[in-house]
Amino acid sequence: MEKNVFRVYCDESCHLPRDKSDIMVLGALSCPESKIVEISKRFREIKTAHGIHSKVELKWTKISPAKIQLYEELLKYFWHEKALSFRAVVAKAKHTLDHDLYNEGDYDLWYYKMYFLLLDKVCDPLSQYRIFIDVKDTHGGPRIAKLKEVLCNNIYDFKNDVIADIQQIDSERADMMQLVDILTGAVSYFHRGLHIAAEGSPAKKILVAMMQEWIGNKLEIGTPLRNQKLNIFIWNPQGGE
Q1: Each residue of 163-220: pLDDT tens digit?
Q2: Non-local CB neighbours of 142 within 8 Å, separated by 6+ positions
Q3: N or C: lower Cβ tally within 10 Å for the chain?
Q4: Which of 106, 110, 127, 128 is nearest to 118 (CA)?
Q5: How crowded is the C-beta side of 67, counted as CA atoms within 13 Å?
Q6: 94 within some domain
Q7: Which of 20, 188, 12, 191 is nearest to 114 (CA)?
Q8: pLDDT digits (tens, 9 = 90+) for 140-153
Q9: How far apart are CA 141 and CA 118, in angstroms?
Q10: Is 240 contained in some domain?
Q11: Looking at 18-22, 35-39, 84-88, 150-154, which range is the least confident one?
């Protein structure tokens, strides 16, 4: 029986160990491989309809009042396109973690543990996945390989029938990477409290409000796993981790 093949595009927000945020958000956008061309084409059409060249990279950090209608339309397209689904892991109390005790003194090891929590619930053993992770740095290769090994072993996928590939990719190369950046950025913005801060961006607040309307207060407390369209998992340390 031939398996359904999906592509999963992943991004992160506030992932650095010494940044000012005490949370980290990882996001994964899943799409059937058979729909990638169609959806990417529509993504570029939305850009050009708003006066943006199709090859210009869209990012959460670039959102401004002048282009709010563009980003609103992109979010609405995501919400109504049945082929797309998004999952985010919000890791809290990042700066309190005892990495010496739990992660062999290695922050990156914890970082990829969170990636495991993100992707383990995305991958169905009855389907096949090609996973793309936004380039973090030049040292990610060995960790990506280890993440693939752990994911495969957890579902007894010793022949890579489920997790066909995990690789790093530059977000400029894929429209889906730009969309997951925007969705992940919105979740991060909410959990950093910027959606209610006086100094917060009015345009970004509008986009966060759209997501709140879709899933209510579950943007704060997380959603049931059955909410596959827009799934939010809140990770809190237990006993120091």
Answers
A1: 999 998 877 678 999 999 999 999 999 999 999 998 999 999 999 999 999 998 789 9
A2: none
A3: N
A4: 110
A5: 18
A6: yes
A7: 12
A8: 677 788 888 888 88
A9: 18
A10: no
A11: 18-22
Residue at 155 is within a domain: yes
206 contacts 73 by C-beta, under 8 angstroms: no
Which tokens belong to 46? 């939305």
Number of domains the chain is built from: 1
Looking at the chain, how many residues does it have? 241
Residue ranges making up the domain that contains 46: 5-235
Which has more pLDDT, 150 or 231? 231
Strands 85-91 and 230-235: parallel
Residue 79: the pLDDT is 97
B/e letters for 23-58, b = 16+ CB within 10 Å, e = fewer, are: bbbbbbbbbbeebbeebbeebbebbeeeeeeeeeeb
CATH number, domain with residue 34:
3.30.420.10
How is the chain classified by DSSP, letter by letter? -PPPEEEEEEEEES-STTSS-S-EEEEEEEEEGGGHHHHHHHHHHHHHHTT--TTSPP-GGG--GGGHHHHHHHHHHHHH-TT-EEEEEEE--GGG--HHHHSTT-HHHHHHHHHHHHHHTT--TTSEEEEEEE---TTHHHHHHHHHHHHHHHTT-TTSSSEEEEEEE-GGG-HHHHHHHHHHHHHHHHHTTTTS-TTS-HHHHHHHHHHHHHHTTHHHH---TT--SEEEEEE--STT-
Residue 241 lies in a domain: no
**If pLDDT is split at 50, 70 and 90, which confidence band does 240 have?**
very low
Tokens (6 digits) for 39: 């959806």
Cβ neighbours, 10 Å, residue 2: 5
